[in-house]
Amino acid sequence: MTGGGRRPGDTEGTRRAMNPNIIKAAIGGGVATGVALVAAPLIVGAMGFTASGISAGSVAAKMMSAAAIANGGGVAAGSIVAVLQSIGAAGLSFGAKVGLASVCGLLGALIGLKIPSGMDGEAQKR
User: Does the keyword NAD apply (predicted)?
Assistant: First the structure.
């Protein structure tokens, strides 16, 4: 293939169309990544893990209570409650954002590939 998206033998005015599967995968991956990076901190905050601590009467408070009872009065470092509180207080770390974007981008791309193209089987064969 030569530069500019043309094949050898194409005339000056012809160009190859972009593969629709690539477009669908890119859109799916981009949307999933964006939603995950925005939604994750919002969901954690809505659960009650906030910058000022755990909100009283929230899901986070119930989780903290259960974790404290299970651990004899304290919340263990590295537990899910501790990690979620860290996210609620400081947001996602760069490494967490990269990991979340990688996983969600791949899943979004795979889901995007499943989006129907709007053409029936006969039209696709032509």
Answer: no
